[in-house]
Design goal:
The protein is mostly helical. The chain is about 80% helix and about 0% strand. The chain has three domains: about 80 residues, Tetratricopeptide repeat domain (Serine Threonine Protein Phosphatase 5, Tetratricopeptide repeat); about 70 residues, Serine Threonine Protein Phosphatase 5, Tetratricopeptide repeat, CATH 1.25.40.10; about 80 residues, Serine Threonine Protein Phosphatase 5, Tetratricopeptide repeat (Alpha Horseshoe). The longest helix has 23 residues. The N terminus and C terminus are likely disordered.
Length: about 240
């Protein structure tokens, strides 16, 4: 193949790649995938084309295909945080959390300051029912990145799943100190106190949640709980709490 032919092929390949990127930004994932494939046929050693193709298949919910192309991109470029992060996410979406772990670990090795991969690593361990390890990861993330609210949310949710309601309420209370308007925390603390039999405290947090999110998907559940508490407590005691 002459040098002129190679240059022409490279030019065509770049055009396909650029067109694919533009289509992907417009959420035209099928059309973008076709153009990434054309770019790959011309240049099989460009990790960015495989990465873009992986993103397209991820959005098309064809996770096995996405994993295949992200994996190829990772082999061609083994120091790209986004590639390993997306690989981990696709393994989670495909229902293979234990397969996600090594990819999140690699992403963390590449960029240890990004909390997202650390959080997803905790989620992967949680889905593998390695609860102690997941809790340890969430707690470490809270200590190193105290403003990262997702870590508090996932730790408290897992603690509630394990029936550790007192510990969960403490985590959620710390969340509220960071962001008093984080409405999910009020619902969570209300549920924790409800489970612990501290209904007076539960009422207070339930009502605070409803004042912030009266029409949320969880509002009906909380309203029903308030009604049940109302009829299970002496009317005078309930009215004193509601004032």
């Amino acid at each position: 193949m002459s040098s002129n032919t190679k240059k022409q092929d490279n030019t065509v390949g770049i055009k396909f790649y650029n067109k694919a990127n533009a289509l992907r930004l417009e959420n035209s994932y099928k059309e973008a995938a076709a153009n990434y494939l054309n770019a790959i046929l011309i240049d099989r050693n460009n990790p960015e084309s495989y990465f873009g193709l992986g993103v397209c298949y991820k959005h098309l919910k064809q996770y096995a295909k996405a994993i295949k192309f992200f994996d190829t991109a990772a082999k061609l470029q083994d120091d790209n945080y986004e590639t390993f992060y997306e690989l981990g996410i696709c393994y989670l979406l495909e229902g293979i959390p234990c397969g996600a772990i090594k990819n999140f670990i690699r992403a963390i090795q590449i960029n240890p300051d990004n909390p997202d991969a650390i959080l997803q690593l905790g989620i992967a361990h949680e889905l593998c029912e390695e609860y102690d390890l997941a809790l340890m990861i969430y707690q470490k993330l809270i200590e190193t990145t105290p403003g990262y609210l997702k870590a508090y949310e996932h730790k408290s949710t897992l603690l509630m799943k394990l029936d550790k309601y007192k510990e969960a309420s403490n985590v959620l209370s710390k969340m509220l100190k960071l962001n008093p308007d984080y409405y999910k925390a009020y619902a969570g603390i209300g549920i924790c106190f409800d489970k612990l039999g501290k209904q007076t405290d539960a009422i207070r947090y339930y009502r605070k949640y409803l004042s912030l999110k009266p029409f949320s998907s969880q509002a009906d559940f909380i309203k029903n709980r308030l009604d049940k508490i109302k009829y299970s407590k002496p009317q005078k005691e309930y009215m004193s709490v509601c004032r």
